[in-house]
Input
Amino acid sequence: FGDTTQAEIDAALDRIGRERAMAGQRAALDSLTGTDADGTSIAIATIRLRDPGDMETLVEAELAIHELTAAVEGPLAARSVSEATIDEEGDRATGSTMLRLMGIALLVIAALGFLFMRSPSDLLLTLAGLLVTIVWITGAQGWLGPNGLGWIGPPNILTTMVPIMLIGLAVDYAIQTVALYREQRTAGEPVEAAVRRGLRTVTIPLALAAGTTVVSFLTNLASPIPANGDFGITAGLGVAFGLIVMLTLVPAGRALLDRRREAKGGLPPARPISNALPGVGGAVEALGRELARRPAPYLGLVAVVTVLLGLAATRIDSTFDTRDFLPSGGEATTDLETLDAAFGGSTEAVNVLIEAEVTQARTILNLLDFTDAFQDDLRRPVGVVGDVQGSVGLLVLDWITDSGVPGDRYDPELATLFEEGSAGVRVDPDVAQTFLDRLEELDTEAVARLLVNNPEGADSLLIQFRALAGDQKRTAAMLEDINGLWFGGEDEFTATSQGIISLEIVDVIQESQTEAIVTTIGAALVILTIFFWVTQGQPALGFIAVGPIVLVLVWVLGTMALLGIPYNVVTALITALSIGIGVDYTIHVIHRYKEEFARLRDPEAAASRTLATTGSALIGSALTTALGFGVLVFSPLTPFQQFGVVTAITIAYALVAAVLVVPPAMIVWGAYQNLRLRHAVERARTELGEEP
Output
């Protein structure tokens, strides 16, 4: 084309636009050219690659094409868009973003940790514990990954969030450990005794909360999406590591530092963490007294909110768009937006696998009619771009049709065989097989690419065409249309493309949503009920611990629906996280209530004292965890931003449930324990012959 002048190009374009005989070329040109939003002329070309047999080679080829187009010099700007380039940009953005967000999260935690603990040494011990936890889980991913034991896949977009999640969760373990140690110190215990008793008090509720969280994350192993299973293993291990580190490193470091000061007589008095937020402790204690006296209005409000948000949750959207995982303003996003403006969207290859006997009349007629439908503007499926690009039907028409153009592939012998085989109502299988054998002799490569002739069963036929991508509703309509064009069994027809796979992922999320929630709640309920039954003979406490979390899940899903946040592959993780965070709070309230009730034997007073002693710590923990997760809103990736918002909402709701729902339930439990005690005393007196 080096000698082609602009005048010659203009003349060719003018001829294509005027002459009726050039209608086919005109349609092809229109489908390959367009205009960007700013008026820039755009042209596209599709490069078809052979399947090399392994994904790695295919990715390398797509990236090599991208490098070649980027190196093109001249008046035209050339770009390539492929699955490999999109994935590479998404992975690069995710990796760099997570490192930056992790640093921000550590800074936020450091500021809040100092606000609550007011001790540089406690803050340094906590940060050291967080870093050790992150190192452990990063190393575990290496050992368990493809280059190790092979139990999980390579890091994915979900597992990259685990370090930030651990920062938000593990810091709570550190704060609770320090808080209980300081309580013992305030009560007059020496350092070693304070460490031992503090650990004895905090270990059980933390282990219960962390164990339930681990099991909740591990329920992701049942997900049909491999990335979710890998996330479940990684997050579950990370929570376990965080608990181990914070229950060993923090108290051990505290003991080493304070024991020296104690020996020298320079140990300052402990400052209770409950006093870290001025005025909060008193407000929470007042709320506790009000709840103890008049729980009905608060529980009524909870019931009304639950019903309203439950209705909203039934309308939650489930969407999955690969563009959400690309940074806004990035090269891939810009290219996709250009294709949207110029051509109505980017296109993708759609492959349809037909498993049927190719020599049957029904199969042959279906193939020919399928090809004809794509050439008819009125019958062409929604979202399909152009005609069928590859199929046995198209190949047959190519060889039996005499176009009159010199050099076409018309073969008279094949045409005669086709007429002979299809002359009657039924196609003669023997003639059809002879026809296919002759076609394979003439065009071996094309037949091998489009047909696998299986003499012992159903044959496999491939139909290929291009369709617009990026709109799930349009893809669903296209899938319905092309299914309607094949008049055969449903098991004969399988269509696949990136858009169709994304659509199936959405369907999987929708179908497994209820199952995942029920499984997670059921696992938490079984664990806690068995624990309280075996250790304390009080299985009802398991229901009190988990029941409020059911409300939290309803509130969260309803709020997501109201805010327009979809239930997608990332935000679906909130189910397990809601259990982990919520159970942590409810168990702490239950554990402290039992201590206060054992001391006071007054259900209402115990509830008031419980919120007075733990309310401030819970608020501080919730604030720290929420802001730790909240840094995700600074991610350039939309799903991460949504996850950060949803997690902050979840933490707030879990705190509300622990404060408003658990104390009234424990008051009922405490009253029942007093009733049982009175009956036991009366029964004992009766047996001893005393007056009741």
User: Anything to note?
Assistant: The chain has a mean pLDDT of 81. The beta strands are 33-35, 41-43, 347-356, 384-390, 451-452, 459-468, 493-496. The two ends are 111 Å apart (CA to CA).
